[in-house]
C-alpha cells in the first residue's frame, strides 16, 4: 500500500526518507531515523518495531543485512512485512515478504533503496530510483521529492493517493526537516508546497538551533534575520506570493 525511498546524501552524510501511500498519515508509522545512526522505513503490514529496534541495532554498529535477518526471524508475520534501511556509512539492505500484495518488491543502489507494495507495477520503484540517481546536482530534499513524483507518474499505489511524508536528519537526534501531508488529494504536491514554505523562513531558523557540538545554538541571530528579510523583500519585489497559508507575519 506504500512506496518509499531511503537514502544517504553522499556529499553531507545526511539521511532522508520519503514515502507516499493510499493510507492515512503514512508519515506517522513508516519513517524512523536518527542522525549519525541510520534510517529505517517499515511498511506493507507495517510493524513499527522494525523501525524502533532497527535503529537500536544500527546504533550498536550492526550491519543492515544482519538486522534484516534478526528482525524477520523473530517475527512470525514477516511474510507480510516490507522494510529497508541504511546506516550512517551508507550500507543498506531491504526485505519484501512473500505475502506482500502485488506488485511488491525493492531495489537497492549505492546509498539508496526503494521499496513498494500494492503498486501498479515494478516501474514505480524503478523510475523512483532512476530519478533519484539522475538528480545528484539537486538539493537532497528536492532530489527525494522528484524521485517520489517519478514513482507516482509511473503509477504509484494502485489504490490511489492519500498521504505522503518527507524527513531529513542531519547529525542530530531531531529532524532538520520533517513534513507530512496526512490526508490530501495530491499529497506529493502538498509536500512540495510545504517544502517551499520551509524555504521561506523555517530552514534558516533551523540553522540557529542547538546541536550536540554547539549546545547553545546561535546566540546572535541577526545574520539569519537579515537573510530572511532579504528573501522576503525579493519575493515581494518580484510579485511572487508566499507559499504559506499562514496569516501575514506581525512584527
What does this structure look like?
There is one protein chain. This protein is of the alpha+beta class. It has a single domain, classed as 4-Layer Sandwich (Glutamine Phosphoribosylpyrophosphate, subunit 1, domain 1). Helix content is 33%, strand content 24%. It contains six helices and ten strands, in the order ββββααββββααββαα. It has helices at residues 48-59, 64-73, 123-134, 140-153, 187-206, 222-237; strands spanning 2-8, 15-21, 31-34, 38-44, 81-87, 92-96, 105-109, 112-117, 163-169, 177-181. The strands form two sheets. It has a six-stranded antiparallel β-sheet, covered by helices on one side. The protein has a four-stranded antiparallel β-sheet with strand order 3-4-5-6, with helices on one face. Helix 1 packs across helix 2, helix 3 (123-134) packs antiparallel against helix 4 (140-153) and helix 5 packs across helix 6 (222-237). The longest helix has 20 residues, at 187-206. It starts with a strand and ends in a 14-residue tail after the last helix. 42% of the residues are buried. The mean pLDDT is 96.
